[in-house]
Structure formats: structure tokens, C-alpha cells
Write a structure and sequence with these properties.
The structure holds 2 protein chains of 2 kinds. Helix content of chain A is 34%, strand content 25%. Chain A is α/β, with parallel strands linked by helices. Chain A has 2 domains: 6-78 and 155-244, P-loop containing nucleotide triphosphate hydrolases (Rossmann fold), CATH 3.40.50.300; 89-152, no CATH class. The model of chain A has no long low-confidence stretch (mean pLDDT 92). Chain B is mostly helical. Chain B folds into 2 domains: 1-41; 44-256, MetI-like fold (Orthogonal Bundle), CATH 1.10.3720.10. Chain B has helices at residues 4-32, 44-54, 65-96, 98-111, 120-127, 131-155, 159-167, 172-201, 203-206, 215-224, 228-256. The chains are: A alpha/beta, B mainly alpha. Chain A binds chain B through residues 58-60, 77-78, 80, 82, 84, 86, 88-92, 99-100, 103-104, 131-134, 151, and chain B through 158, 160-161, 163-170, 174, 178-179, 182-183, 185, 257-260, 262-263.
Chain lengths: 249, 263
């Protein structure tokens, strides 16, 4: 299970947006810790601000107030897996995975070796020269995961990474991700609105409310892996979380 | 081999060719049947004969069709290439960097609605009569679509892709060159093709500036000499070369953007 070191510490993080109807508070004083090498799931109804929270951690958006502190041993940079893959259409798989290293100024050979390692790990060996438009949704997201791992950052943020996939591919990718994770430990923050996915994947689950979002509850599923979504404990936990989860507005 | 693919390719070619044949066939027939007098409209076969004749004959406009064509091509290419060299970077900068946008947009918006032909009098006064003035008119015609398409293309760069690069530590310059420009390229190419069309279509007007050679000049001379075959020959050459070069640009586009049109 998770190590004890705290990788990211969020304290009273709040965020609002101005829009046509006025000011909407999205995050309301969110405090949470992300521990080293854990698989933390942030679960909440649609539109509750989970993505905003992740973007703030990734420094793609700024919080209005509150602090985010990274473990001093961590670079403070994160790998990011996007729901809509966010691949560069004009680059092949290899070049897409290499990209974060390229911007960091890594040597070509080292870049390629690292990229190839992760392309192999996500099961895309043989597709290095393919362009994103030639890949299925599941394969695109494998590229997305490889890219996040290849970035070399020890924290990976995943924003509903399987949300755009069909149900069958989604189950497959969940297992794939757990397999990848067992090969190489990383600290993962995984956002989803799917309760079963949260229980299936997470070492720890934080349940968020509708916006303005707060952390409502924390769950630590005491279930043996690989988890079975038909086991009685799984279903009990699912019922309990369902009862506590707001409906999406 | 007969399969779905060859069948559809064969069908395409058949439709292309039969469309052309019908167009020229009807035209030929209209003249042959005397529906329109041969003095007003010349049949395609007669235009072809004039073409053969004009390969060596310099009457009535002082040059062979080869010289006219090469002169016009040179003129259009100068104006067109210049407009790409200046218009594309300008559009990309305006679309990506806000200060550049604020600085250039008002000037551009004022210049944009002015038709290229309206420039002729002032251009003759400033640049005199000659290839510079003619090339400038063509430049103006080709410039606007270059800028607009590059501008629109780079503005449509996905914010998420920019975020990907930003979180990976890309600098603003890297964002421009590695994310903005590649994602704008399809639109830039469309702009270049439209620009070429405008440049070529402005040829006759540009050669009205006291030229002594060129396809536009040849058409003018044909008109003065009451030679509809010369006029139509000039028009035909402009049409054919325009279509061929646009096709060439499309091939270049496919080579430059191999990741598009993939199965």
C-alpha cells in the first residue's frame, strides 16, 4: 500500500469562476494530502470541479486562495493524462511520448530509449510510427499514459482518463493501468465520476460534493486485489458511496 | 484486378473525363451548328489550331504563346511567393501573440476591403510602369487570404495541447513553433491555395498596366485585333495552368502533412 511520505499537500484551496450569471464557486476550501506511491481516486458527480482541482495541482490554473505544497524531494512537476487524449495529431506515437522529454532538453537517444520503454509497457510496441488518427480510443489513451510516465515525473494526474471510452475498453484499460502501476510505482491522482471505477482502482477514495465542492468523505477499500465488482464487500461499499454521493446537476 | 477501390477510382476518372468532354463537345457543337457566329465564339478545335500557330507566330501581339506564358508565370510567382513570405508569418504572429494582434489588426482591417484593382493608379505613380507595379497588384490580391488563414489557423490551436506543452516546460517560443505552427499548417495551406487562386485571377488586371508581354496583354491585343481565338486561347491557358498549379499545391500539401488523410 501507500508509503507514508506526503507528496502533495493542499490546504484550503478555493476557486471561483466568473460567468454570465455571476460568480460561481467551484472549489470550497479543499484540503487533502496525496501520499507517496498511493493510487488516490477523487470521486465526484459530473461538473463538480474535479478537473479544476487537478488543473490547479498541475499548475494549469491558479487557485484563488489556499496553498499547494509539494514534497521537497519531488520536482513539483506532474505527468498528466487527459480525458480527450490531447495527442499531437502531426506527431507519431514515438514523437508524442518523447515530447515532454524534448521540452526538458533531453538528448535524442535517451529520449527515444525512455519513450520506447514506456510504449512497450503500455503494450503499443510496433505502433511507434503510427499517427494518432490511426489508433482506437483505447490505444490513444495508452499513448497518453506512456507520455505521462515518460515525462519522468513521480506524480501522475489522470483526468477521467477512461471517460471517453466504451464500457468494454474501459474495463480493459482499468486492468492495464493497474498492471502498469504494479511494474512501476508512481503517485497517481485519478479523477472519475464512476463509483465502480473508483472502488476497483483506488487505494484511497475522496468523495467530493457538488459545487462548490468539498471533500465529503474518505474511503479506504479493504478489498484484496484483483478486486471483483461482484463480491459482496465491493457491492456494500458501492451502495454506501452511492448513498453519500450527490447527483450530478 | 477488379475491386471496390479500383472501381471507384475508375468511376471518378470516368466522371472527370466525361464532364470535360461534354463541356467541350457542347461548345464545339454550338459553333459547328452556327448557333453562335464563328466571329464571336471560336470552337475548341479552332482554339487548338491557334495554339499550334502561336507557338511560332508572333502576330498580332509581338510574342509567341510560350513567351507570354513564361512572363505571366514569372509575374504571378513573384507576387504570390512574396505574399506568402510576408503574409503567412504575419498572420501566425498576429494569431498567437496578443500585442502583435493589437498592433497589426487595425491596419490590416483597413487594407483588406480595398480591391486590388483600386491600387493600380497609385501603384503606377509610385512604382512606375513595369513588372514591379504588376507584381505589387498580384501581391495585394494574394496577401489577404494568406494572412487571414494563418491567423485563424493558429488561433484555433487546442488549449489542451498548449497546456500539455506548457506543463512539460515549453517556453513561449517553443509553444509558437512546436504547437501553434504545426496545428495551424492545414489552414495555412488552404490560405496558400486560395492566395494562388487570387494571384492568378488578378493576372489580366495587373497586365493592363501598360504591359507589352504576358497572357493578359495577349488577351487585350486579341480583343483590339478582333481575334476571339486569341482571346479564348489566352483564357484557356490561364485556366489550364491555374488548375495544374493548384493541383501541384495540393500534392505538396499532402507531402508536407502526411498525418492527414490517414485511414
Amino acid at each position: 500500500m501507500a508509503g507514508t511520505g506526503c507528496k502533495i499537500k493542499l490546504e484550503s484551496v478555493s476557486k471561483s469562476f466568473d460567468d454570465k450569471i455571476g460568480r460561481t464557486a467551484v472549489l470550497d476550501e479543499i484540503s487533502l494530502n496525496v501520499y507517496e506511491n498511493e493510487f488516490l481516486v477523487i470521486l465526484g458527480p459530473g461538473q463538480c470541479g474535479k478537473t479544476v482541482l487537478l488543473n490547479i495541482i498541475a499548475d494549469m490554473e491558479q487557485a484563488d486562495s489556499g496553498t499547494i505544497t509539494f514534497d521537497p524531494q519531488s520536482s513539483g512537476q506532474t505527468g498528466f493524462v487527459f480525458q480527450r487524449y490531447a495527442l499531437f495529431n502531426w506527431k507519431n506515437v514515438l514523437k508524442n511520448v518523447e515530447l515532454p522529454l524534448k521540452f526538458k532538453g533531453a538528448e535524442k537517444e535517451q529520449r527515444q530509449n525512455t519513450a520506447m520503454k514506456y510504449i512497450e509497457m503500455v503494450g503499443l510496441k510496433g505502433f511507434e510510427k503510427a499517427y494518432p488518427s490511426q489508433l482506437s480510443g483505447g490505444m490513444k489513451q495508452r499513448v497518453g499514459i506512456a507520455r505521462a510516465y515518460a515525462s519522468g515525473n513521480d506524480i501522475i494526474l489522470m483526468d477521467e482518463p477512461f471517460g471517453a471510452l466504451d464500457a468494454q475498453t474501459r474495463y480493459q484499460m482499468q486492468d492495464e493501468l493497474l498492471k502498469i502501476r504494479s511494474k512501476e510505482k508512481k503517485t497517481i491522482v485519478f479523477v472519475t465520476n464512476n463509483i465502480e471505477e473508483a472502488i476497483y482502482m483506488g487505494d484511497r477514495i475522496l468523495l467530493l460534493s457538488n459545487k462548490p465542492s468539498k471533500v465529503v468523505k474518505e474511503y479506504v477499500p479493504d478489498l484484496e486485489r484483483p478486486r471483483k465488482n461482484t463480491s459482496s464487500q465491493f457491492m456494500e461499499l458501492r451502495d454506501e458511496i452511492t448513498a453519500n454521493m450527490d447527483l450530478a446537476l | 484486378m477488379y475491386n471496390e477501390k479500383t472501381r471507384s477510382v475508375g468511376m471518378k476518372v470516368f466522371l472527370n473525363v466525361s464532364g470535360l468532354l461534354m463541356f467541350f463537345g457542347i461548345w464545339e457543337l454550338v459553333v459547328a451548328l452556327g448557333l453562335i457566329s464563328e466571329k464571336k465564339l471560336v470552337a475548341p478545335s479552332a482554339i487548338f489550331m491557334t495554339f499550334i500557330d502561336k507557338l511560332t507566330n508572333v502576330v498580332p501581339d509581338g510574342n509567341t504563346i510560350i513567351v507570354h506564358t513564361l512572363t505571366s508565370l514569372e509575374l504571378v510567382l513573384i507576387g504570390f511567393v512574396l505574399s506568402c513570405l510576408i503574409g503567412v508569418p504575419l498572420g501566425l504572429l498576429m494569431g498567437f501573440f496578443k500585442p502583435a494582434n493589437r498592433f497589426f489588426t487595425p491596419i490590416f482591417e483597413i487594407i483588406r476591403p480595398i480591391p486590388p484593382l483600386a491600387w493600380i493608379p497609385i501603384v503606377i505613380v509610385v512604382l512606375g510602369i513595369g513588372i514591379q507595379a504588376e507584381a505589387f497588384i498580384i501581391f495585394v490580391a494574394a496577401f489577404v487570404p494568406c494572412v487571414i488563414n494563418s491567423y485563424t489557423g493558429i488561433q484555433a490551436t487546442s488549449k489542451t495541447l498548449l497546456d500539455v506543452a506548457k506543463t512539460a516546460g515549453a517556453s513561449k517560443t517553443q509553444l509558437f513553433f512546436k504547437v501553434g505552427i504545426p496545428s495551424a499548417l492545414p489552414m495555412v495551406f488552404t490560405g496558400i491555395k486560395i492566395s494562388f487562386g487570387s494571384a492568378w485571377a488578378t493576372l489580366v488586371a495587373a497586365e493592363m498596366i501598360a504591359s507589352t508581354v504576358g497572357l493578359g496583354f495577349m488577351i487585350q491585343q486579341g480583343r483590339n485585333a478582333v481575334r476571339p481565338d486569341i482571346v479564348l486561347l489566352g483564357m484557356s491557358v490561364i485556366g489550364l495552368i491555374g488548375a495544374a498549379l493548384t493541383g501541384l499545391l495540393s500534392i505538396l500539401e499532402k507531402k508536407a502533412l502526411p498525418w492527414r488523410n490517414l485511414k
